[in-house]
Design a protein that fits this description.
With 768 residues, the protein is of the alpha/beta class. The chain has 25 helices and 22 strands. The chain is globular, with a radius of gyration of 29 Å. Bound molecules: iron/sulfur cluster (SF4) (2 copies). The site of one iron/sulfur cluster has 12 residues, from loops.
Length: 768
Amino acid sequence: MLKVHSRCDLSCDHCYIYQHADQTWRGRPARMPAATVQAAARRIAEHAHEHGLPVAHVVLHGGEPLLLGAAGLREVLAELHATITPWALLDLRMQTNGVLLDEELCRLFVEYDVRVGVSFDGDRAANDRHRVFAHGGSSHDQVRRALALLRRPEHRTSYAGILCTIDVRNDPDRVYEALLAESPPRVDLLLPHATWDHPPERPGSAPTPYADWLGRLHRRWVDDGRPVSIRMFEALSPGGGGTEAFGLAPADVLVIEADGSWEQVDSLKTAYHGAAGTGFDVFDHSVDEVTRHPGVAVRQDGVDGLCATCRACPAVERCGGGLYAHRWRTGSGFDNPSVYCADLLRLVDTISAHPSPTASVPRQRQPSPSVSGAGSSSSPVDALLDDLATGYGSAETLGLLAATQLSLTRALLAACRGRSGTTAAWELLVHLDQAAPEAVRAVLAHPFVRPALVHRLDASAPSGPGGSVDPLPALALAAALRAGVAAAVRVPVRADTIMVPTLGSLALPGLGESAEVTVRPGALQVRSGSVEQTVLLDPTAPPSPGWQPARDVAVPGGRLLVEDADPYRDCYGQPVHPRLELPAARELGRTLAEAWRVVRRDVPAHAAALDGGLRAVVPLAPDPARPLRSATARHAFGAVAVTPHRDPETMAVLLVHEWQHAKLGAALDLYDLVEPGADARIRVPWRPDPRPPEGVLQGVYAHLAVTQVWRARAASDQKDASAHAAHFLAWTRDGVDALLASRSLTAAGERFVGHLRHALEETSVGPR
Ligand code: SF4
Ligand code: SF4
């Protein structure tokens, strides 16, 4: 965090820089001199170079950084760029009160890709309670004008979000609505800085007013479907990954003051005069030297760095003792729980009652700047993307991707409910979801459920015979069969066929447009007009006429469906194979099982990623012109499509390649890695035509995995493997470089690709 200007044009009474215990600002230059900017940039570059950091995160802060003016800020940005970018990507942020923001500054920030966070406390009454000029006048209009400027399409990429310091005297609903009205990409809520010596205001008699206030806001947020990222709530969720204020991750922020002093995290200024000081400066001391300072080192110790009360606390994983500064008490120093302890404990409970879809993300600490610039830490986003950027991704990450895909399917299912002609199927699904959740989950996780739901919701899709059919009854039927629960469902018929997703299909001439299906354990009975048929699902029973069971094969990761019947498998933009003859299906099954073993032999980490989510393979129709084809569909997570091929070694590469697309597609359903609207076209070595950024991202991710496969084969001296490895390595390197040079990635995207580059270089050195 670079304090480029140490004075401010506002006079907020809750400001920890001017109004709290520390008053060191008085002895510092108003603006950071050019020589200090230079020295700071060199220290950051030195650190990035020595530690091989893919990205350096720099937050321009104050006081008020906009007091430097456009020309002064341009000099700072140019210096940072020139000095740091030869060694690492530069992720630039700024925290401002917004008062001076104008179009020229916005253009500058877009030019240098600076993401700007604006301090804004909510509606006029809330904002004016503290955020005023020295003469007492309101800053509300100026800040809203700044937010409107950042929202403009041409500036939007520089809009990082809003930092809101809460006050429990404000109306939480009005604050929430005022924040959302500014369409921020992210909101940071801050508890007002306080210590045990100077506890926070607690108006009224409630023991936990901050938890109550935040709980109300959290309720609105959950009810609204979490329309914006709110870091506090995400950080306090199970597995939330922590921030500077919460969790056990090591602190990773250092401050460079306007005079070049290294300081610890800024909020310590609330504890006592000089609390943030280290005695080091950028002219004489490196980052590594500062990190050995006891005040910095103690915040690298996780739970061991906390007081006994926190260490024994059931919420310690998520709360982490709260913000370091809030633990201060004269006498015992920082060896205390947070002064907000009771509120935090209660808030953790409130948030636990509504776990977020990212609840099980594994913790993996990596630096990541907050909107506020007042702290940085690994977020769930970072953890998931960093793990995927290894090329493969852990079982936990795959589990998370599968869970979030399932959530999307459930949301689409609920949307389809309104289009269903009957409520009976929905009610049966709801009942089964309570009585036999695993059966419902197994059906909804089928890769071709989501394409069916999307097709149903597509207003342009034709309806009636041959067109869109209501998918809910067939899903309820399949779930009831899997659960062994007696039920009766009227099911739409398409081309004389009833699909029972994950289990099979029944084709009988004369079924008409719908049929009454009765389910009893192990069997189903179908009636339509004069047609009546009982199907026994027992595989040892004689085959029932018209029943075509789904085909699956044992693979090291479990059972893999050879999906050659579901009508919604036709989602790959290329012709799919009609139902295979039994010998051909068996041969494909054998090849797939053997290919899976080959993946396990060559790249066990990729085999584990397949285990974690690949559930079906769709055979593509043969094409003599292109005998070796494969594909992935964004809506069909859990499946890939391949042309039937007899060589398991080749099939192994196809599976790994396509599974990369599936994983990245699922991640892209969650996070923007490419700037929305980025219209760059990028030349890559594996395609003759320039590609959009997301296509290149998909390409490099797939080619990274293929490189890893060939490297592994080269290490075991397989013929021609070294040449293949070098070929894919060169492709991937070129793709990564072109992607980074295109500047079409978001900060998360740049971080992801930066990590990919590391994974790639690891791949390219020495045998495994
Ligand atoms: S705008 Fe920020 S730095 Fe300025 S007085 Fe307010 S809180 Fe302090
Ligand atoms: S809730 Fe209280 S005791 Fe528990 S970790 Fe947080 S501050 Fe410590």
